[in-house]
């Protein structure tokens, strides 16, 4: 089955676990709104690609790992869009959850998605119960304190923070969890896969910083220039646009080198390369390099 | 070891899992603030009492189950106190998390506690890995959609809701999870323990409704009369104060009858009776009954 279709079906099945005729209908609608339609689903695709590279002997468990990673990502977006954080009215080209359903349901949807991510993983673990505990710890470490997404967002609430630590927690940790969980779901040691996840995660955050400056709001589906408006740490602010692009390229080259020699290596390299073009199109890179030598600043 | 001490130590050890010198310090402080000092810790005490009644052959796993239940309860309080919900400045006699640390950290603390609850459970499961999946599903069902705390809070966002369904989700479900998880942590079937949890949970919600009308704000540690102010469903509003007290008494009698014949039965009966007095002191009952025949309404 096509990986993208496999992910959408697994997400839908997981959401159905949290649905019932006896449950509050607006919570259900808001939860679906937070998950569908999705973005690029890069984290679950990465998770499944690594599981496949490791033999994928328990596809249902790999699906549940990929679903957990994506649901936790969606939860972080819903809470990150809240008025007290980014106050974003748009997400993935549609109204954000709080804009469409109100702030209270947005808080609850995030909570429900976090619980569902772990519940769905546990409910699938009868296929390979001995793998559950370590897999769950891996996923939790990607999202919780002290080093996961929650910690990353919490660095935005500190007077002082280190850019690399912030990016590693806010974005890198869940990418590293995606690769590690893919390996663990297939019964493999995650260590060989952590570097790929780390580098991709960092590249993704750098790309997000570049896009924040460069992108067309319609194409990106969310308001841009928010890092500057929110005085948030950003590679593009720290390194300059051209410096950030050079850093992005280095990180992706490192990600490709970090792919272990295995049956899935070619597919993983292709995935990394297509993400590279999707995240920071070559057409942008030319514009940025041209602008570097031009007398006037770039206008997006 | 004394159950109360065992719970505080286990909570402290779990929080330390989410702490690090490399983590955002205000998130750590806010997370501790959400968990310490605690309230009555009735849910984890109930969980451990049932585990003990079932033999408590894996005390570390029972501790982790009790900790998960309490951390999830704390998370729900932190999010319930947010400005968009109850906007409560006080909790357990001190500033609520959002009042002390701001709204953003309050959202993140709730998220971090949910993740930590499951992570800590998984990290302890090497003691009895075959028990983890079902135990985790039980705990998740007490807190998530469609029937747990999140669903209960979401009923407050619906135009119409049934009082019993609302109370069962908002309070009953986590009590039922506490008894069931206690049994499962000790390797027992949870079914015999669900009724005790259900009845106690409902009694606790009814007591909360009574206290909302009756209690001295200083004693309760949070602002009272909020159900009425927020136009929230309440047994005291639906049945009247005397009717709510009679319902509470019936529920507790049912809870005592639902305790299975086992080595822990006497201790569980004592726990239920001491909770009864703590929740709705006999002195209140006399005041309410006297007021029922008096010409003027009760003033708290």
The value of Rg of chain A in angstroms is 19 Å
Oligomer: homodimer
Average pLDDT taken over every residue of chain A: 89
Greatest chain-chain interface?
A: A-B, 59 and 59 residues
The top-level CATH class of chain A is Mainly Alpha
Q: Strand order, biggest sheet of chain A?
A: 1-2
Which architecture name of chain A does CATH use?
A: Orthogonal Bundle
In which range does the helix fraction of chain A lie?
over 70%
Low-pLDDT segments, ≥5 res of chain A: none
Distance between the termini of chain A: 39 Å
Shape of chain A: globular
Binned strand content of chain A: under 5%
Number of continuous helical runs of chain A: 15
The beta-strand count of chain A equals 2
Write up this protein.
The structure is a homodimer of 300-residue chains. In chain A, α7 packs antiparallel against α9. In chain A, 70% of the residues lie in helices and 1% in strands. Chain A has one domain: Farnesyl Diphosphate Synthase (Orthogonal Bundle), CATH 1.10.600.10. With 300 residues, the first copy, chain A, is an all-alpha fold. The interface between A and B is large, with 59 and 59 residues.
Keywords:
homodimer, 300 residues, mainly alpha, Farnesyl Diphosphate Synthase, two-stranded antiparallel ribbon, globular
